[in-house]
């Protein structure tokens, strides 16, 4: 069986290390996981060659929305979130395949943020009182927004460069029975009043956040920062942050755990996958 991660750029991806380690631990010796460098224009050709020898695809930017019209079915949850990071390939009785799209990014963030805060989805004495902020307005920001709603944040705040980009976030929140407040980049200091801040801003844009957020007086208590970037690490924002920081490796790990579960039907070896990813990061760091 074959599986792969698709995106552009993709050479930095840790997904092959995570998935391959899971296959080995589960005794799936005839499974292989690869990298496919592809953008939106090339994605239809990749999807067209999927057959019964494939288990599925992992999708990163810029493909999380482009994949939707290319599959047979999008899960109700992924459609509500408006972002897909997983395609499952299921054989049909006529010899063809059916492509099912899903989202495991939300689960990855719920597990990551919940563990860092010591709470699970909707659990804990402060459930419903969590103050959460999302930085950025793209596809991953939608998953971050939904994760905060699931963790009990009644009205997440989303900070974006252009409020026009965040229109879909309003729709996502409404689909799931939640609310969201959208503010511009000029309101970045509000982030330091939250309990958790999830940054979905690419590493190259992180320095701009530092310039806008940190010249002012330091907050009395810094919130938890979850930065979805894991390479290059640390980002300028993570380096300058005055409180606890969790990097994108944790989110990547737990969304990959969910993908392995969906693709194989087996319970993933989380500790083995964590060790493999950590080792690969250490090797890259020299």
TrEMBL record:
Domain of life: Bacteria
Keyword tags: Amino-acid biosynthesis, Aromatic amino acid biosynthesis
Residue ranges occupied by any SDH C-terminal domain in the UniProt entry: 248-276
Classification via InterPro entries: Aminoacid_DH-like_N_sf, NAD(P)-bd_dom_sf, SDH_C, Shikimate_DH-bd_N, Shikimate_DH_fam
Record flagged with keyword Ribonucleoprotein: no
Domain (Shikimate dehydrogenase substrate binding N-terminal) ranges: 5-87
Amino-acid biosynthesis as UniProt keyword: yes
Record CDD domains: NAD_bind_Shikimate_DH
Pathways involved: Metabolic intermediate biosynthesis; chorismate biosynthesis; chorismate from D-erythrose 4-phosphate and phosphoenolpyruvate: step 4/7
Classification via PANTHER family: BIFUNCTIONAL 3-DEHYDROQUINATE DEHYDRATASE_SHIKIMATE DEHYDROGENASE, CHLOROPLASTIC, SHIKIMATE DEHYDROGENASE
NCBIfam families xrefs: PRK00258.1-3 (NF001311)
Descriptive protein name: Shikimate dehydrogenase
């Amino acid at each position: 069986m074959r599986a792969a991660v698709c995106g552009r750029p993709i050479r930095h991806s840790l997904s092959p290390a995570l998935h391959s380690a899971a296959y080995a631990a589960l005794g799936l010796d005839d499974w292989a996981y690869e990298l496919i460098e592809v953008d939106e224009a090339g994605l239809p050709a990749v999807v067209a060659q999927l057959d019964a020898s494939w288990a599925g695809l992992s999708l990163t930017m810029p493909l999380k929305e482009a994949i939707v019209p290319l599959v047979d079915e999008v899960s109700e949850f992924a459609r509500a979130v408006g972002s897909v990071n997983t395609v499952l390939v299921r054989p049909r009785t006529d010899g063809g395949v059916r492509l099912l799209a899903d989202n495991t990014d939300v689960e990855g963030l719920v597990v990551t943020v919940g563990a860092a805060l010591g709470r699970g989805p909707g659990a804990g004495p402060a459930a419903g009182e969590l103050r959460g902020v999302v930085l950025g307005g793209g596809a991953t920001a939608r998953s971050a927004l939904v994760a905060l709603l699931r963790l009990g944040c009644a009205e997440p705040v989303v900070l974006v460069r252009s409020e026009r980009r965040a229109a879909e976030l309003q729709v996502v929140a409404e689909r799931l029975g939640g609310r969201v407040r959208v503010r511009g980049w000029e309101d970045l200091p509000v982030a330091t009043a939250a309990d958790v801040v999830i940054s979905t801003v690419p590493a190259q844009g992180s320095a701009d956040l530092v310039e806008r957020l940190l010249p002012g007086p330091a907050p009395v208590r810094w919130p938890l920062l979850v930065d979805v970037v894991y390479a290059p690490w640390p980002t300028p924002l993570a380096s300058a942050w005055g409180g606890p920081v969790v990097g994108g490796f944790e989110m990547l790990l737990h969304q990959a755990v969910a993908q392995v579960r969906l693709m194989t039907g087996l319970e993933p070896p989380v500790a083995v996958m964590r060790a493999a990813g950590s080792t690969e990061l250490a090797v890259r760091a020299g």
